[in-house]
């Protein structure tokens, strides 16, 4: 049974509820694991071939090396400064891998959302991943192809600038074509907007329409050109809805962690609070050094802005979450000077793995909500733009089932006679 939609901003508010699904969260969690895992391996390789050691990279970046990331002491890391070109090329391959996996995971999540809106609640994760792999070319090549075109235009501008530097005659020729150059520059900026929109909404376009690469690119241009203000307003509304839903989910998780700490410390005593917890924090921070630094910086900036402008709600939600600051506490980078039993050391490692997985679940819910919202946005914009309800679109197999009926062996199809009747 088809879900009732309003095809306006009210549908966007359903994104947090649709994103709160075990199947969608698991699909995004798998995508994070594959994408960031591949990125970590390739980025480590890019630094190792330039002469850095694994110990140096781990001490400075943790599991996810990022150019100009913060080091353990707050200084700016310099392992990416002065790298040879082939190291940057290898690192770019890692970034491309993470982007491709993210687009495929987004397509699978959008397909799950689309089938759920059509009433097919039993559409499985395996079918969603199969659909994403089958349509990978359209999802990946649409934004990547546009990015290659934009890069070609920028390179053309560099060539024109190099030609203009030859002398007075070349400068005159270049300025004579100034209107054309300006038009191409404006088109390049517009192309950049299309690329940004494509990375965000291309998975939803492919999941709901099964378009190929050319048709997906056409839909991106058509959507931005026909519904720019609705697209902007719906995306902004999705951002607010996702932020509120994520804050509520984070509040439940944070207070659950605080409650777990209080309950465990009753019988486990000082061994849990003095060693297992600090060591688990230390391992978590060492593994996710760059994301933790980024999260700390964002939260601190948000709290400072909230205090300056008198915003009470962010301070109440984020400034008074003991569980949240327990995960992101910056005073846990050193080992505790005790000699515990080996079992407590293993317990701290297991707890650290659980904390990393928990952070992955939080990020996966955030991504699932965003992708569910993108699906709702595109379905609404397609209705506004072309007056077509994508939920009512039938698949090719559903529309032409007679082409799927196999013929029995030895039986030939009847040939029509001149009057159009079949011969017996």
Topology (SSEs and partners):
Elements: H1 9-12, H2 15-19, H3 22-48, H4 54-61, H5 85-117, H6 125-134, H7 136-164, H8 168-176, H9 178-209, H10 213-226, H11 228-268, H12 270-287, H13 289-308, H14 312-318, H15 322-328, H16 342-386, H17 396-399
Helix pairs in contact: 3-5, 3-16, 5-6, 5-9, 5-16, 7-8, 7-9, 7-10, 9-10, 9-16, 11-12, 11-15, 11-16, 12-16, 13-14
Average pLDDT confidence is 81
Output the number of helix runs. Answer: 17
The main β sheet shows up as: none
- Say how many strands there are: 0
* Class computed from helices, strands and strand pairing: mainly alpha
Identify the overall geometry. Answer: globular
List keywords for this structure.
424 residues, single chain, disordered C terminus, 0% strand, mainly alpha
Descriptive account of the structure:
Helix 7 packs across helix 8. The radius of gyration is 27 Å and the shape is globular. The model is unreliable at 69-76, 319-323, 330-339, 397-411 and 419-424 (pLDDT under 50). With 424 residues, the chain is an all-alpha fold. It starts with 8 loop residues before the first helix and ends in a 25-residue tail after the last helix. The chain has 17 helices and no strands.
Brief characterization of the structure:
With about 425 residues, the chain is mainly α. It contains 17 helices and no strands.
């Amino acid at each position: 049974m088809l879900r009732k939609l309003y095809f306006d901003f009210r549908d966007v508010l359903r994104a947090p509820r649709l994103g709160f699904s075990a199947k969608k969260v698991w699909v995004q969690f798998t995508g994070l694991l594959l994408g960031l895992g591949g990125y970590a391996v390739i980025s480590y390789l890019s630094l190792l071939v330039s002469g850095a050691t694994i110990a140096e990279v781990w001490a400075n970046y943790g599991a996810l090396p990022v150019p100009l990331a913060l080091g353990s002491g707050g200084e700016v890391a310099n392992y990416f400064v002065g790298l040879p070109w082939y190291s940057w090329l290898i690192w770019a391959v890692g970034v491309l891998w993470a982007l491709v996996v993210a687009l495929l995971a987004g397509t699978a999540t959008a397909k799950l959302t689309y089938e759920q809106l059509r009433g097919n609640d039993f559409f499985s994760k395996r079918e969603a991943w199969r659909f994403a792999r089958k349509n990978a070319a359209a999802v990946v090549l649409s934004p990547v192809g546009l990015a290659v075109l934009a890069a070609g235009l920028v390179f053309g501008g560099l060539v024109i600038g190099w030609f203009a530097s030859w002398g007075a005659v070349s400068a005159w020729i270049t300025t004579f074509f100034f209107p054309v150059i300006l038009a191409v520059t404006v088109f390049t900026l517009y192309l950049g907007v299309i690329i940004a929109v494509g990375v965000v909404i291309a998975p939803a376009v492919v999941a709901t329409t099964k378009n190929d690469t050319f048709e997906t690119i056409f839909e991106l241009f058509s959507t931005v050109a026909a519904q720019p203000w609705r697209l902007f307003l719906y995306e902004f509304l999705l951002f607010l809805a996702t932020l509120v839903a994520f804050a509520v989910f984070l509040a439940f998780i944070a207070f659950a962690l605080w409650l777990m700490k209080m309950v465990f410390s009753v019988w486990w005593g000082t061994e849990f609070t003095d060693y297992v917890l600090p060591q688990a924090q230390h391992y978590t921070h060492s593994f996710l050094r760059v994301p933790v630094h980024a999260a700390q910086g964002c939260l601190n900036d948000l709290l400072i802005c909230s205090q300056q402008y008198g915003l009470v709600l962010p301070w109440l939600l984020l400034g008074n979450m003991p569980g949240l600051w327990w995960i992101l506490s910056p005073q846990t980078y050193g080992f505790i000077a005790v000699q515990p039993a080996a079992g407590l050391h293993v317990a701290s490692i297991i707890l650290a793995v659980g904390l990393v997985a928990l952070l992955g679940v939080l990020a996966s819910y955030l991504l699932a909500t965003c992708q569910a919202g993108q699906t709702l946005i595109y379905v609404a914009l397609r209705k506004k733009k072309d007056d077509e309800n994508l939920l009512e679109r039938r698949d090719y197999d559903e529309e032409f089932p007679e082409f799927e009926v196999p013929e029995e062996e030895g039986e030939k199809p009847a040939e029509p006679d001149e009057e159009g009747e079949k011969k017996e």
